[in-house]
Amino acid sequence: MNYKSLSIYSFFAVACFAFAVVSCNNEKKPTESKTTHKSKTIQMITNQEIIDAQNIWGEGIISIGKVFLAGGNYTNAAEDHIDALYGYHLGKVLFKPTLASQNQFRLTKEGALSYFVGHNPAFAEDHGFAIRPWSKVRWERIGTHIEGNLAVAMGNYFFTPHSGGDEVKVEYTFGYIKDASGKLRIILHGSHLPYAPN
Fold first, then answer.
1. Same domain as 175, residue 90
2. Sequential pLDDT tens for the chain (198 residues)
3. The CATH number of the domain where 136 resides is what?
4. How many domains does the chain contain in total?
5. Residue 103 is part of which domain span?
6. Are 109 and 162 members of one domain?
7. In 86-193, which ranges are continuous DSSP H helix?
8. Within 10 A of 88 (CB to CB), how many other CB atoms are there?
């Protein structure tokens, strides 16, 4: 091998080494991203967490009704319920209440609050679902689908009127996400009365 060939060979060897170093440095960047960091700090949602969140939701609806019956500030109770369980502070929440036909979808906290307690001229059809009131909420869980920090649950829930009478059966779909503190937040709430053929 002559001197000229050796020089060309050395040039390519140095160029390949430099390319390998740059490639290795570039490959390190994605592992340092915020997304990867967040996935390490927020644990996967569990079935038990979903069950607990649903029971707390039902207890919250009953509690708002009790405050109403006692003549207390049930609007504040409903606001506390929304703040504790829904993710309006994180972004858009997809909420389709059961008894809504004019303003069917409530993408703001104001719309959700109106559904639970009524008395908002912007949502004239609302009479306050939580102040009907109810004495019991029973859950029939059909299934859940969990993908890491996101979960969807579907089934029926049954509401017992405070004044007595038969349970009211309602279909539900809830979507949950864990916030930065590890608490489940509702980001999807679809609720419908079962189909009743004519």
1. yes
2. 444 444 434 433 433 333 333 344 444 333 333 333 344 566 899 999 999 999 999 999 999 999 999 999 999 999 999 999 999 999 999 999 887 777 778 888 999 999 999 989 988 888 889 999 999 999 999 999 999 999 999 999 999 999 988 999 999 999 999 999 999 999 999 999 888 887
3. 3.10.450.50
4. 2
5. 44-192
6. yes
7. 109-117
8. 21
Amino acid identity of residue 13, one-letter, is A
User: Is residue 39 included in any domain, yes or no?
Assistant: no
CA dihedral of residues 157, 162, 163, 168 (deg, nearest 10): -10
Distance CA(195)–CA(170), nearest Å, equals 10
Alpha-carbon distance values, 115 to 32, 95, 100, 118 (Å): 43, 10, 8, 6
Taking alpha carbons only, the member of 169, 185, 191 closest to residue 97 is 191
Judgement on whether residues 79 and 167 belong to the same structural domain of the protein: yes
pTM of the model: 0.76
Please report the sign of the dihedral spanned by the C-alpha atoms of residue 36, residue 90, residue 131, residue 60: positive
